[in-house]
């Protein structure tokens, strides 16, 4: 009793949890995959109609070409966060979190299983919106590997933050507050619709303390080849943030903080 009989990693349990997290959002793909495409399209449409041809180039790019990667990454960020946070919060509110805690899954396996859903959802959303962006703007992807790397970092970082938020929140109102007052402002105020070079002091400096700025700026570099900050610096900062967030999420899952009675 109490001895793991399936090796160092419970691959069956991990695969089952990851499959459950993917099937959660694929069961309502109209809301989780198609709806973000509609939202991104509305953003582009509104800016195109409101600004028309009157908006000059930004960082040497037509404004809609500049805007596309920011909207793509903002949508990826919101969906990656929502996937893990809603999964944990729903399970806690409905009282079936025990179904996840009782199986012989380690903290690392729980973390990987939850993150798998965020990574797959973020990847699908990025693929759908990226395809639409290429069709609308007619511009290709300058550095596909960089773009994919920053999308992956965004999925891991916001998926990890979603786990932390899901553990902290005891009801949906608290989760909505975290999303509305922390995640959404950080994503909107990180160069999604503008270049931070145009911000007055000290807001231009403060923007560089926002890790989401580097995610959006890195995605813009991957798609267009231009960026506000060196992409390698953004890669290092985002990697460190991902490591810190995932370590904290692992510690909380291991201790059962706000998850176990």
From TrEMBL:
Protein source organism: Paracoccus siganidrum
GO MF assignments: ABC-type transporter activity
Bilayer-crossing regions: 33-51, 63-82, 111-139, 145-169, 176-196, 234-253
InterPro entries: ABC-2_transport_permease, ABC2_TM, ABC2_TM_bact-type, ABC_2_transport
One GO CC annotation: ATP-binding cassette (ABC) transporter complex
Taxonomy of the source species: Bacteria, Pseudomonadati, Pseudomonadota, Alphaproteobacteria, Rhodobacterales
Keyword rRNA processing in annotation: no
Superkingdom field: Bacteria
Domain ABC transmembrane type-2: 27-256
PANTHER family for this protein: INNER MEMBRANE TRANSPORT PERMEASE YADH, INNER MEMBRANE TRANSPORT PERMEASE YADH-RELATED
Protein name, entry field: Transport permease protein
Subcellular location, record wording: Cell inner membrane; Membrane
Keyword list, A-Z: Cell membrane, Membrane, Transmembrane, Transmembrane helix, Transport
Membrane topology: Multi-pass membrane protein
Family assignment from sequence similarity: Belongs to the ABC-2 integral membrane protein family.
